[in-house]
Amino acid sequence: MNETNIRGDSDVDLVVEMKMPLEQQIERLKPFERKRFDDRYEDSRYDRHDFDLDVLVALRESFWASKHNKCIDIKDWDSALRLPADILPTLEHREYSGFSASGRETYRSGVVFRDRHGTEIISYPRQHLRNGRRKDRDEIYPLFDKEVPKGLKSFVTELQQVFLR
């Protein structure tokens, strides 16, 4: 199964996503759609750098936090009970393919961040999760059609409906 497992000595990863302002790819929009986009969204003086710094400052109020290549690393030296954590500040990223007159926006949603060298990294975690679940369904569950007796097969089907919604 494509799930996240945390071992006893593993760290915890957390994404902190800022929804607005967002970063966008609007190259595929037609000129009149781009005008609609520009009319709806205006440039903000608060940017990704400000957000990264605000997250780091806020974390340092309660933890030993330091900026690394992509993440903010948290260590809590005063407690043996807490796990270290990697915090990734991101902005919402939208790859637009349409912007209708009624205001309906068509885009693929993801997150964007930069490493310490300034390299932009765009990721689509929701799509990755859907693809992983589809892969699990296509590769693992067909085995049940051949190898599991009928009664157990219906039980597994019920479990799938409960846990894979």
Low-pLDDT residue spans: 1-10
Give the percentage of residues in beta strands.
25-35%
Give the total of beta strands. Answer: 6
Question: Terminal Cα separation, in Å?
Answer: 14 Å
Q: Biggest β-sheet, characterized?
A: 6 strands, mixed
Mean pLDDT: 81
Helix percent band: 25-40%
Shape designation? flat
Number of domains: 2
Provide structural commentary.
There is one protein chain. This protein is α+β, with helices and mostly antiparallel strands. 35% of the residues lie in helices and 31% in strands. Strand 4 (85-99) and strand 5 (105-114) form a beta hairpin. The longest helix has 15 residues, at 125-139. It starts with 11 loop residues before the first strand and ends with a helix.
List key phrases describing it:
alpha+beta; 6-stranded mixed sheet; 165 residues; disordered N terminus
Task: Please describe the topology of this protein.
Elements: E1 12-25, H1 31-40, H2 48-60, E2 64-67, E3 72-75, E4 85-99, E5 105-114, E6 120-123, H3 125-139, H4 143-147, H5 150-163
Parallel strand pairs: 1-4
Antiparallel strand pairs: 2-3, 3-4, 4-5, 5-6
